[in-house]
């Protein structure tokens, strides 16, 4: 489904809102074709960072640079899956998945939409509206819409939150499979999710970025992989220490 090799993403700078520091100076690289997970306490600026990369933040001042390793512009090559499924309630699944093309005033690629619906297990729900879907199904629609955009850089903001543990694990596997080969920056509050999916794992804190070595196993890692559980525990301990220090 994906043609060109995606670029790495390089973020280097300082963010302020209304003159007050938010984060930085920080340097964060999301490696080409890999999943980079970003954890950190609430309010530290993770969503803001994703919006800055996507070019959709209108209140934050960012002094520095957000670049792709191939020096081509970033925002037009980014798909952002925002927090919450964020579906339009009056549109059915197919129309929600093809929303990007409609907003751009272009004809959606129906064959491609149908293929993505099949691959995300949504074919039987194609004509349902969001109120008739479970939380997990709505998240799948949001993921399908992100895949429909077919961008080399994908930003995911707590994509699988609010799902039960079993559905969340399934969604992580689905996401890892379908996003394979793209440059993914994934914000999550879940240390287990970062340990399963991260080729690289960072914690954004008040004092900057801390990098935690990922488990050795291939992504997506099994939920009961010993190395994954060990990293999950280490991440939780670090997040607790940061919370206690805040
Ligand atoms: N439009 C805005 N105007 C002013 N301040 C804002 C605006 N949007 C976000 N902020 C502030 O920026 C800070 C960072 O918010 P952000 O949503 O990026 O944090 P976060 O780390 O993603 O938090 P969470 O994990 O709870 O989602 C918060 O203190 C928030 O109040």
UniProtKB/TrEMBL annotation:
SMART domains the record matches = AAA
Recite the UniProt keywords alphabetically.
Answer: ATP-binding, Nucleotide-binding, Transport
Domain of life of the organism encoding this protein? Bacteria
Any one GO MF annotation of this record = ATP binding
**Record-annotated ABC transporter domain positions:** 8-231
Give the matching InterPro entries: AAA+_ATPase, ABC_SmlMolc_Importer, ABC_transporter-like_ATP-bd, ABC_transporter-like_CS, P-loop_NTPase
Keyword Ribonucleoprotein listed: no
Q: Which protein are we looking at? A: ABC transporter ATP-binding protein
Which source organism? Answer: Roseovarius ramblicola
């Amino acid at each position: 489904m994906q043609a060109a090799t995606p670029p790495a993403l390089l973020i280097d700078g300082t963010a302020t809102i209304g003159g007050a520091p938010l984060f930085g100076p920080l340097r964060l690289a999301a490696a080409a074709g890999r999943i980079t997970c970003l954890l950190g306490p609430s309010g530290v600026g993770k969503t803001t960072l994703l919006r800055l990369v996507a070019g959709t933040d209108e209140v934050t001042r960012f002094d520095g640079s957000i670049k792709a390793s191939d020096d081509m512009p970033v925002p037009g090559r980014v798909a952002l899956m925002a927090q919450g499924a964020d579906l339009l309630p009056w549109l059915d699944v197919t129309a929600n998945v093809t929303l990007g093309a409609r907003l751009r005033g272009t004809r959606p690629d129906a064959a491609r939409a149908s293929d993505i619906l099949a691959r995300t297990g949504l074919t039987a729900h194609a004509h349902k509206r969001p109120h008739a879907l479970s939380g997990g199904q709505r998240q799948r629609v949001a993921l399908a819409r992100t895949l429909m955009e077919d961008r080399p850089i994908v930003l995911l903001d707590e994509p699988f939150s609010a799902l039960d543990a079993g559905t969340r694990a399934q969604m992580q596997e689905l996401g890892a499979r379908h996003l394979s080969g793209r440059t993914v920056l994934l914000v999550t509050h879940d240390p287990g999710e970062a340990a399963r999916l991260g080729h690289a794992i960072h914690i954004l804190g008040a004092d900057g970025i801390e990098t935690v070595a990922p488990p050795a196993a291939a992504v997506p890692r099994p939920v009961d992989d010993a190395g994954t559980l060990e990293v999950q525990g280490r991440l939780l301990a670090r997040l607790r220490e940061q919370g206690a220090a805040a």
